[in-house]
Specification:
The complex is a heterodimer of chains A (571) and B (264). Chain A has helices at residues 75-85, 104-110, 140-144, 206-214, 231-240, 249-258, 261-269, 277-289, 300-303, 335-340, 350-355, 409-412, 439-447, 517-520, 524-527, 530-542, and strands spanning 14-17, 29-32, 41-43, 57-61, 112-114, 117-118, 165-168, 182-186, 189-192, 315-320, 346-348, 363-367, 373-380, 388-392, 469-474. Chain A has 571 residues and is an alpha+beta fold. In chain A, helix 6 packs antiparallel against helix 7 (261-269). The longest helix of chain A is centred in the middle third of the chain and has 13 residues, at 277-289. Chain B has a three-stranded mixed β-sheet with strand order 10-1-11. In chain B, strands 2-3 form a two-stranded antiparallel ribbon. The chains are: A alpha+beta (571), B alpha+beta (264).
Chain lengths: 571, 264
């Protein structure tokens, strides 16, 4: 939407989140979601499944707990309700009947990508004996969650918690004499251990390829060979020189879809990069760095004289997205993990640190070519190469994010590389001048038609975090109040802090097994369910009242003063 | 005599801290808890969040780049045969159990003088400022002697939850036990033998060759799982220890979560 000042703005941002996640303070509407324990979900082979080396596998989530907050529905259900109410195709039948009356439960077994292929790959077919391809199976979810709801204590014993079921496989094309074997389904997951004959060397195993094609795992049975010489990259190079005779993929797709010959003309006209600022630089980068046979070249930002040349920015950067305990910042809500790794530091080799007079635990400022500064604390390690600064991105967080108070260790001490990363290329490679790497400078460049090229890997398009080089300066050893440095607002998330220090005065329920429930301020009934303990903690500290279904019953049992009477069997 | 101990194979540990969190989770609801958390969502100005853990994983680095090796060392109380902490305790709150050699602290007797914390050469005792008592690893004996658990699970949670099979539990005084035989076969050594506390919990040094299968064994295969964790020795061991109950902590307090396994 075009604003009154001529700039484009996204008018309204909605977000779905289970917790007070990183984007919550930045959006107009937050739709709460339930946790994995309260909803149906999937880890399908169609998108990032769990894996097994022996064959295909997938798993589901299913509600083993009722929703903790009575107003919250699983968002997967919410989407289906919305689609059904709006009468969208794919949600209602031709006669207007809802296609998924049981919402996500139904969608999991009913929805098909192509006939026979759906979200879950095992226990397909009306009787559950098809693997990977088969009719939707109304009992598929029941088979996946076998043995279904059981008492928590029963999980410890193989007698009360039987192993997943072995279901015969009756579909698919196998080499002569090879038995399909069984698929394993239950405990909310499923896998198919391929018969030995088709398990190994799968890229050229004829039996495997023919089986995979027969169950639509692959479109055709053809060996999978990695080409040394890439014809596709050569096409890009020809296009950069204006020599490629192919068509622009987007416009050609639109032509195929609509049959409008205008799109065909556009597809033929736009088969080379455009001749504007952005296009000429993209063509130049393709000519210079694309090779049909893999070669090594220095990162683009290191080669450009106005980029991050090593003589000006001596230190290379190394980043890890995740660390052993945090994938991105998802685990920040877990207080025990938060203590294993309280904040992100800068890792340096002792030899490099000594060159700058930096000792273990010293505070430094890192500067990038964008002119921004970020502060961090140095930890010395021999496990990192000299001339490199390393850090774990997944521990970066700002106050206001994830309900962190302004004086949280993440905020006050944590190093935030996003502050100094430069998102556009050097001017000589199609970006903006380093002095213009500001909000105003970037907007001016776009408005004057010089859309800057972005600092991405030239072929993969992945953010080139590691290509940026930095200068380092040791600063006073007393801890700065803020590790923010002077980072520009363009990468500084949100200026408005909506969480104050009250966040860390939220009462914490410390379970104490030797104290009587009354001493802890709870009833015996609640002691026997950690879920109810949690509810009680929320009720006390936030004044939230839960639905009656989860309120402790007021009969004599729950109010019994004699804990031994009800001591066992409720856990 | 019985001396319960844990053997840790440093050639297998990759430092995931699953033992540390499994330990805290178990003891949070047992008679050796509570595992106090202080301000877990944010610090007092200038203070980090703080929490009671009975075990931790040290990160050790050897050599110079590029010939660097890093090791993760899971460490919890070694239940020394000559425990320094017991010697200095002025009240007798901390003592070594005759039956199984486990060193425990009776929270009802402990006065919080923190001598034990200073005496332990390994830093294996932690002071809980909320309860005002010292706390430490108790080899999860409230689990070992809990008859309501399946046999193969009656070992400490740090042992059952290790994805790499790094830790083995058992009787170090029994030359026929899995833990003893593995320790001898792999040349296991104590940490800091020079302190003279004679720890029965030993370490297999990194790089010791094994011919073991690297296949991951899970609880889906109780028999193999029991062999891997040392729980296969429990029938013999528990015969010797029949009638033994957990002691120390708050276990003797007649309330919820006592030695009978209630509340856990």
């Amino acid at each position: 939407m075009k604003d009154t000042d001529g700039r484009y703005r996204i008018p309204f941002v909605a977000q779905v989140d289970t917790f007070y996640g990183g984007s919550v303070p930045c959006v107009d509407l937050v739709i709460p979601d339930t946790t994995f324990f309260e909803r149906y979900g999937e880890h399908s082979l169609l998108d990032r499944p769990n894996s097994s080396v022996h064959g295909p596998s997938d798993n589901i989530e299913w509600p083993i707990l009722p929703p903790l907050f009575k107003e919250v529905r699983p968002w997967s259900d919410g989407e289906i309700i919305l689609g059904t109410k709006m009468g969208l195709p794919g949600f209602v039948t031709d006669t207007g009947e809802p296609m998924y009356p049981n919402l996500m439960y139904d969608w999991l077994w009913k929805w098909q990508y192509v006939p026979g292929v759906g979200v879950l790959y095992m226990a397909r077919g009306t009787d559950g004996t098809s693997c990977c391809k088969g009719e939707p199976n109304p009992n598929q979810i029941k088979m996946y969650v076998y043995p279904g709801f059981i008492n928590a204590a029963a999980y410890s014993s193989s007698e009360t918690y039987p192993a997943p079921q072995k279901v015969p496989v009756t579909n698919g094309v196998y080499p002569p004499g090879v038995s399909p074997g069984t698929q394993t389904v239950g405990h909310a997951f499923a896998y198919y251990e391929l018969p030995l004959e088709i398990r190994y060397y799968r890229h050229v195993n004829k039996g495997y390829l023919e089986w995979a094609a027969s169950v639509s795992m692959m479109p055709y049975a053809k060996p999978v060979i990695i080409p040394i010489y890439s014809e596709i990259i050569m096409k890009f190079i020809l296009a950069a020189y204006g020599l490629w005779k192919g068509k622009n993929a987007y416009f050609y797709y639109m032509y195929q879809k609509t049959g409008d010959s205008t799109y065909l003309q556009l597809a033929e006209k736009n088969n080379t990069p455009p001749s504007d600022w952005w296009g000429t630089h993209v063509a130049q980068i393709i000519k210079q760095f694309y090779h049909p046979i893999a070669v090594w070249y220095e990162p683009l930002d290191w080669i450009a004289p106005d980029g991050s040349p090593p003589n000006e920015y001596p230190l290379a950067t190394l980043n890890r997205k995740s660390n052993p305990w945090f994938y991105h910042t998802w685990e920040n809500h877990h207080p025990w993990l938060r203590q294993i790794l309280p904040y992100s530091v800068i890792w340096m080799n002792p030899k490099t640190a000594a060159q700058y007079g930096i000792k273990n635990g010293d505070w430094v400022e890192l500067t990038s070519r964008g002119g921004e500064i970020a502060r961090g604390q140095v930890f010395l390690t021999e496990a990192i190469a000299p001339g490199v600064v390393g850090y774990w991105k997944s521990r970066n967080a700002r106050a206001g994010m994830m309900a962190l108070p302004p004086n949280a260790v993440e905020t006050v001490k944590g190093f935030m590389f996003n502050d100094i990363y430069v998102y556009t290329r050097a001017q000589s490679q199609g970006g903006v001048p380093n002095s213009q790497y500001t909000v105003e400078g970037l907007i001016n460049a776009v408005q004057s038609g010089n859309y800057p090229t972005l600092n991405l890997d030239p072929f993969a398009g992945k953010t080139a975090w590691g290509d940026l080089r930095v200068k380092i300066v040791r600063i006073a050893n007393d801890k700065p109040y803020s590790a923010w440095g002077n980072a520009d607002l363009i990468v500084k998330t949100p200026p408005k802090l909506i969480v104050g220090s009250e966040a860390w005065s939220i009462n914490v329920f410390n379970y104490n097994a030797y104290k009587k429930p009354e001493e802890m301020g709870i009833s015996w009934y609640e002691v026997n369910s950690s879920w109810l303990q949690f509810q009680e903690a929320i009720r006390h500290s936030m004044g939230y009242s839960f639905s009656s279904a989860t309120t402790p019953p007021s009969d004599s049992k729950s109010n019994s003063a004699d804990p031994k009477k009800n001591g066992n069997g409720q856990g | 005599m019985v001396q319960l101990a844990i053997l840790t194979d440093l050639s297998k540990c990759f430092g995931c801290n699953a033992c540390m969190l499994a330990c805290k989770e178990w003891h949070s609801s047992g008679c050796y808890g509570p595992m106090t958390d202080l301000k877990p969502w944010g610090p007092e100005p200038g203070k980090a969040p703080w929490s009671v853990f009975f075990m931790r994983v040290l990160q050790v680095e050897v050599g110079e780049f590029p010939n660097t090796k890093t090791y993760s060392i899971p460490i919890s109380c070694f239940h020394c045969r000559n425990p320094a902490c017991v010697t200095v305790c002025p009240t007798g709150a901390i003592y070594k159990r005759k039956e199984d050699g486990v060193v425990v602290i009776n929270y009802e007797v402990c006065i919080g003088c923190r001598y034990c914390e200073n005496a332990c050469p390994y830093g294996n005792i932690i002071f809980d400022p909320v309860e005002g008592v010292s706390k430490k690893c108790v080899m999860a004996i409230d689990r070992v002697y809990n008859e309501s658990l399946p046999l193969y699970e009656r070992v400490p949670p740090c042992v059952t939850n290790c994805p790499a099979g790094t830790r083995i539990f058992g009787d170090m005084d029994d030359p026929n036990s899995i833990i003893y035989r593995t320790a001898v076969r792999k040349g296991a050594v104590p940490m800091g033998a020079e302190y003279g506390t004679d720890p029965p919990s030993l370490y297999v040094m990194p790089g010791v060759q094994t011919n073991e299968s690297t296949r991951i064994v899970t609880k889906e295969e109780p028999e193999e799982f029991a062999l891997r964790t040392g729980a296969a020795d429990l029938p013999t061991l528990l015969q010797k220890l029949s009638g033994v109950k957990p002691s120390g902590g708050h276990c003797e307090v007649e309330s919820v979560g006592n030695s009978k396994g209630q509340g856990t």
